Amino acid sequence: xxxxxxxxxxxxxxxxxxxxxxxxxxxxxxxxxxxxxxxxxxxxxxxxxxxxxxxxxxxxxxxxxxxxxxxxxxxxxxxxxxxxxxxxxxxxxxxxxxxxxxxxxxxxxxxxxxxxxxxxxxxxxxxxxxxxxxxxxxxxxxxxxxxxxxxxxxxxxxxxxxxxxxxxxxxxxxxxxxxxxxxxxxxxxxxxxxxxxxxxxxxxxxxxxxxxxxxxxxxxxxxxxxxxxxxxxxxxxxxxxxxxxxxxxxxxxxxxxxxxxxxxxxxxxxxxxxxxxxxxxxxxxxxxxxxxxxxxxxxxxxxxxxxxxxxxxxxxxxx
Length: 319
Fold this sequence. Notes:
The chain has ten helices and 13 strands. It has helices at residues 46-56, 73-79, 94-104, 124-132, 189-195, 205-218, 246-256, 272-279, 283-299, 308-311, and strands spanning 15-19, 33-38, 60-65, 83-88, 109-114, 117-119, 137-143, 153-159, 162-168, 185-188, 223-233, 259-260, 265-266. α1 links the parallel β2 and β3 (60-65).
C-alpha cells in the first residue's frame, strides 16, 4: 500500500478546537484573510501578542498550540473571540501544523507566521493585489528585531551535481524563492490544498520545506516575494539543520530523482541503485520506499511541467 498522498492526509492527527464558533462554509462568503499562528518556545506576553494582532485588522486567527497544554487558552478565548485555538493531541511537525491550520482556516489567503513574528500593515488593497496575481505563496520581506533585512530568499543551484541552497535578500518585488523561509508566507488556501500541502512523512523542517518548494515550482505554481509585505521577528531566529538525514531520501525520490520527459514526470528505475547505495540500511526498506515514490510520481505525472534542474533556471536572471 502506498504511503504517499495526492492531498495531505492529516486525518490521523487528532485535535480539539476551542474558541470562535465555526461557520457553515456553504452559507458564507469566504473572508479575504485568515491568520495561522504556529507556537514555539516560551509563551510570555500572549495577551499582548493577540492584542497586537487585533490592531492589524479584524481577521480570523487560528492559534495552533503545541502538544503541551496552556493554562491561559480559556481566558484568551473569552477575551479574543476572533481567535480559534487548535489544541494538538500529539507532537506534529511544523508542516503538519500548517496543514491543520490551513484546513480549519476560512480565508482565501492564509498568513502563516510564528508567535515570535508580527506582520506589518495588511491593507485590503495589498491583499487583493496579491490574490489577483494567482500565486500559491507570497513570501514577505522578513526583518530582524532591529529591522535589519533577513536573507530569506532561498535560491537553488547545482554545483558538481550537488544541490546547494543560497540565501539572498529580497532585492526586488516578485523575486522567486524556492520555499517560504521559516514556513512564513501568504498562502492562497485552495492552491495550497490542491498541491497537497507539506509532507508530514518528512520530519526534518529543512527537507520538508525543500520538498514543498520544489513541488510548487515543478508543478508550475508561483512562489514569489512581495517587498510591500513585511513581517518582523520579535526575537532571534535559530539556524536550522540542513544535514541530509532520513528525511532527505524521501525528498530526493519525490523531487531530484524525477525526470521530465516532455509532458510528464517519471521516476526512472535506474535511479534505484544510486539511491539505495547512498541511503544504506535495509535493502527491503529501500525497495519499498522506491516503489511508493514511483507510485506517487505515476499518479501525479501530468502535474509536472519541469524537473528539479529546470527549476534552478528561474534564478538565472536574479542577481
